[in-house]
User: Fold Transposase from Hymenobacter lapidarius.
Amino acid sequence: MTLDDFPPRQTKQAHYPIAFRLEAVRRVEAGEVQRVVAAAMGIAPITLIEWLRRHGTAAYAMLKRKVYTPAQKHAIVRELRTGLLTEADALLKYGLREKQTLRLWVAAQVAAEAVAAAPAPDPPAEAAGSAELAAQLRQAQWQIEALHTLIDQAEAAYKIDIRKKGGAKPSK
Assistant:
C-alpha cells in the first residue's frame, strides 16, 4: 500500500482510517525507524507511538520493554553496590533507559535490608500482646510484598501500567 491509497482527512479533528494506522504500525514492526515513518506518513511521532501501543503486536511490545524479575533486580543492584558496575555501565549492559530506575532499585533493596536487619525491641512487661502485633505486622508486610509481585506479574503479562505514576493527578 502506498500513501496515495488513503483518502486525505477532511479536518484536523477527523480520525485516520484504521487501514492507515495499521499500515504505519506494520512499517515500524517491519524495522523502519519510528521518526521516519511518522514523517513519511505526515503524523506526529507521539501519534505513531500511541498507535503502536493500541494496534501493535505483543511480540513487538515485548521487544521494546524489558521486564526484570526481583532476582534479576537484586543481582543488578548487588553489582552496583559492590562496585563491579557504574550506573552508566549498568544502563548499557542491561538496556535500561534511566539512572532513576537503578536508584529506585537500590533504595528498595537498602530499605528491605534495613527492615530485615533491624533488631526487634524488647517487649515491655505490660504489653503482652506486642508479640502478636509484631507477628501481624510481619504478615501484613509479606502480603504487601506478595501484592507488589502480583502487580509486577500482571503488568508484564497484560502489558499495561497498573500503578499510578508519581506525578499523576489525584483521582476525584
About this structure: The two ends are 46 Å apart (CA to CA). The domain at 3-64 is CATH 1.10.10 (Arc Repressor Mutant, subunit A). DSSP finds eight helices and no strands in the chain.
